[in-house]
Write a structure and sequence with these properties.
Number of helices: 6
CATH class of the largest domain: Alpha Beta
CATH topology of the largest domain: D-Maltodextrin-Binding Protein, domain 2
Order of helices and strands: HHEEHEHHEHEE
Largest sheet: 6 strands, mixed
Radius of gyration: 26 Å
Helix content: 40-55%
CATH superfamily of the largest domain: Periplasmic binding protein-like II
Strand content: 5-15%
Structural class: alpha/beta
Distance between the termini: 58 Å
Number of strands: 6
Number of domains: 2
Length: 178
């Protein structure tokens, strides 16, 4: 296998700029050789193929969960934004909506805010702070973990929250978002 001496290439990089169309290609061929270019191309293709798979496997998609007694089985995206923005405070039957969220630095919270609400988590926090400091509303209740989220939503009438898809159990109901 050929060994590349980087020190011997320095004068080429410092003194000669590619002036012809083929100069950069010739320099790449001289530095990497045929085997090196093949390895680089293979690594790039492998990274492109495995990258999305690794991201999808990192964590399940966040799903919206409610207390089983909540009368709603699906929500529109705007209604979901209004509920988690603390602007919609009651369910269609008039019962109070109790909103639970994970801590701001939770990966599931970040995914939920970006994917389901189409807002950055810091913007959501700013909206909640504005309600609290102006005296016109309350921030949602914050829980420390997804397990605690499920326990709180399951035990609180009218509760809504979110967890990773794999965390869902029979104590809560998943709501479809349209």
């Amino acid at each position: 296998m050929n060994q590349l001496n980087v020190g011997s290439l320095m004068p080429v990089f410092l003194t000669s700029a590619p002036t012809e169309r083929g100069s950069a290609r010739q320099l790449t061929a001289a530095v990497l050789g045929r085997e090196g270019r093949f390895r680089v191309a293979t690594l790039l293709l492998l990274a492109l193929a495995v990258g999305p798979l690794r991201i999808a496997m990192a964590a399940g998609e966040p799903v919206v969960i409610v207390n089983p007694e909540v009368p709603t089985t699906n929500l529109g995206a705007n209604a979901l934004r209004a509920i988690f923005g603390m602007r919609l405070r009651a369910w269609p039957d008039g019962s109070a909506a109790r909103v639970y969220v994970l801590k701001d630095d939770s990966r599931t919270h970040v995914q939920f805010a970006k994917q389901q609400l189409s807002i950055f988590p810091h913007q959501l926090r700013r909206a909640w702070d504005r309600l609290v400091y102006s005296g016109t509303g309350q921030a949602p209740r914050t829980v420390d973990s997804e397990a605690e989220m499920i326990a709180q939503v399951a035990s609180t009438p009218g509760a809504i929250g979110y967890v990773s898809e794999e965390m869902v159990n029979d104590n809560v109901r998943v709501v479809d978002i349209r």
